[in-house]
Design a protein that fits this description.
Chain lengths: 304, 92
């Protein structure tokens, strides 16, 4: 079946999951001063699970329920660098499902502990293989036991659908239709693909940003030339493709905290740094997706 | 001091496809420098201009986080295994 926003909202009415979405949109008053374009930040850390992934997590679980894929002994399974894991664990805690997450060993502690707090079981994959190693391990597990329901955020159509039917319309409504650009990083690509479907037909230019190197520190983003390509990714959804250096992203992440009071992770800094390049050259209202909060990185050198 | 250095797939382009390299050196910086001599550009992928381990890279000497043992100055015992891994992972 095809989900819609009303159906999803009704399924979670009266629970904390009802608070997923409708996140704040704030203008950068200092970092964005003096530029030709206005830069606005969509603060996804305001979601109950602390990241943009709550949207996809909720929709993917509700889709699996609606499709009849979840039985009493089922275990929802996915590979995740962390934020999706937290989101799935949160949603499954509320919906009463078991969840198993595969994530690379020795990544930052915060997500592992939060996902575990929500009741998830973790399988740690080879740290040298990164997220792609976690994907391969999840694929192996999915084939090994019929109780696993493989969510597969990289291929699941409910991932971009969540953004097409919630994130995109929210941005349109919050800007009164004045949004001219949307900037976001590409990881699973669900955000960019979904928002593009909602806003590009209205004339909004879509900007997709990737790390500039296979070895990078922009958590949640993929360097597509060297990574397993998500099935939902389609380069044609974006008008502009940009790359971002991790050091530039780190500098901007720290500036956002000190100058705007926006405490975010490295992907938030990277997306804003990309948006500033556009705002220097072009007029308009540029909306940037800030995927998560800085608290998720307190154990990393980012904040030392 | 001969050690084994294990590398992530993301560094294969710098090391000619190798993810396991034998190297020598008394400190982590020496070991990285030894690899850099054979694979120019390697040092800059792991250490920043000031010689510190990049914020988005974790290096382990055996089970120990190299940052906690002095970063590039950390001693690397004979026969130990050094592991270089991405501190972050990709997934939005």
């Amino acid at each position: 079946m095809t989900l819609n926003a009303g159906f999803v909202r009704e399924r979670v009415r009266g629970t904390i999951l009802e608070r997923i979405g409708d996140t704040p949109l704030v203008r950068l008053q200092r970092i964005g001063a003096g530029l030709r374009g206005e830069v606005w930040a969509k603060i996804e850390s305001a979601n109950p699970g602390g990241s943009v992934k709550d949207r996809a997590g909720l929709w993917m679980v509700i889709a699996a329920e609606a499709e009849g894929r979840i039985r009493q002994d089922s275990v929802l399974l996915d590979a995740t660098s962390g934020n999706t894991g937290v989101a799935l664990a949160l949603v499954c805690a509320v919906r009463g499902h078991n969840v198993r997450l595969v994530m690379p060993d020795r990544v930052s502690l915060e997500r592992k502990r939060i996902a575990t707090a929500f009741g998830a079981r973790l399988t740690l994959s080879d740290p040298l293989e990164g997220t792609d190693g976690a994907i391969r391990e999840a694929q192996r597990l999915a084939k090994s036991d019929s109780r696993f329901v493989y969510v597969d955020q990289y291929s699941n159509p409910a991932n971009p659908l969540a953004h097409e039917l919630t994130t995109g319309p929210e941005i349109w409504s919050q800007t009164g239709g004045a949004v001219t650009h949307f900037v976001a990083g590409v990881g699973t690509s669900g955000t960019v693909v979904g928002v593009s479907r909602a806003l590009r037909p209205k004339g909004v230019r879509i900007v997709a940003v990737q790390p500039d190197d296979a070895l990078h520190g922009i958590e949640g983003w993929k360097h597509m030339p060297s990574a397993i390509r998500p099935a939902i990714w389609d380069e044609r959804v974006a008008d502009v493709h940009m790359t971002m250096d991790t050091d530039d992203a780190t500098v901007m992440t720290r500036r956002l905290a000190k100058e705007e009071g926006i405490f975010t992770g490295p992907s938030g800094g990277a997306a804003i740094a990309a948006a500033l390049r556009i705002a220097k050259e072009q007029t308009g209202r540029i909306v940037v997706l800030i995927a998560d909060g800085g608290e998720r990185y307190l154990s990393t050198p980012l904040w030392e | 001091m001969a050690v084994t250095v294990r590398l992530p797939g993301a560094l294969r382009d710098t090391t000619g496809g190798q993810t396991k390299i034998e190297a020598s050196g008394r400190t982590l910086g020496d070991v990285i420098g030894d690899i850099d001599r054979r694979h120019p550009g390697f040092r800059g992928r792991v250490l920043d201009d000031a010689g510190r381990i990049r914020t988005y890279v974790n290096v382990y000497i055996g089970e120990d986080d190299a940052r906690a043992r002095g970063g590039a100055e950390a001693a690397v015992p004979e026969g130990s295994e050094v592991m270089v891994i991405p501190a972050m992972a990709g997934g939005a």
